[in-house]
Amino acid sequence: MEPVHIVAEKDSIAPIVLLPGDPLRAKYIAENFLEDAVLVNSVRNMLGYTGYYKGVRVTVMGSGMGIASVGIYAYELYHFYNVEKIIRIGSSGSLNPNAKILDVILSTGAYSESTFENTLLKCENSFIESSKELNKIILNTAKEMNITNLKYGPTYTSDVFDVYCDISDLINRCPIKDDLMCVEMEGFGLMHIAAYCNKQASMLATIVDSKYQPDVIVSPEDRETSLNTMITLALESIIK
Q1: Domain 10-238: which CATH class?
Q2: CA distance from start to end of the chain
Q3: CB contact set of 19 (below 8 Å; sequence gap of 6+)
Q4: The pLDDT of residue 228
Q5: pLDDT of residue 83 exceeding 90
């Protein structure tokens, strides 16, 4: 069987990958952070690029939104292209008063009521850990970079965009609700695929909205700077 959603030469994708949801963010990273970046996938406009960061070959590509979409791209990267490590980078909403707008969250693992793991593995595992080894590298790298707004804890993966739909009932049912740092839509799928393929995955998510700070308005410049911090942290970590 050949991959369906990523059509690229097998050696054109690096063994380490950054995975933003937005393919245009992948393009932005390739153009602003990588050297000699080459477009390696454009099927369905899910752009993927391979280039060099500090002399190390790295691929960055979009995953789309939601568990199902990230599951497809993560599986094809791990299974068909021999990718070993993926760090998802994206945006999120705060679920904890200690997770402030523009903080970067490093996920220890993702909780969800999705049926993804039941369909994939025929089991019920509502919490899946991220890679402890990769997380340790990210934490140490953040210290080296003097990043003071990195928060560490479990995250919630929703099947719906929580801005459009109230998911408070789901959060309240979560057995680790008081520990949750933020909500997003892809981490649970990525981490289950990584475990299924015996590979490594972690997730960094920048807080872009918070019910605890309803009056905070984030300027485009501040948002870009914060996302750049997350991108640089991911790149510095993935090459180690």
Answers
A1: alpha beta
A2: 32
A3: 60, 61, 62, 63, 70, 73, 74, 77, 86, 87, 88, 89, 190
A4: 93
A5: yes
88-118: burial string, b at 16+ Cβ within 10 Å, e else: bbbbbbbbbeebebbbbbbbbbbbbebebbe
Q: Identify the residue with better confidence: 164 or 12.
A: 12
Catalytic residues: 209
Nearest to 105 by CA among 232, 230, 17: 230
- Structure tokens, 195: 């475990």
Q: How many residues does the chain have?
A: 240
Strand pairing report for 104-111 and 150-157: parallel
CA distances from 127 to 116, 187, 189, 234 (A): 12, 11, 11, 23
Q: What is the pTM of this model?
A: 0.96
Of 75, 81, 53, nearest in space to 63 by CA: 75
* 39-50: average pLDDT: 98
Mean pLDDT check: name the lowest of 46-50, 145-149, 163-167, 182-186. 163-167
Contact (CB, 8 A) for 127 and 110: yes
Portion of the chain with pLDDT greater than 90, in percent: 87
Residue 159 burial (10 A CB sphere; 0-12, 13-18, 19+) = middle
**Cα gap 73→194, rounded to integer Å:** 11
CB 222 within 8 A of CB 131: no
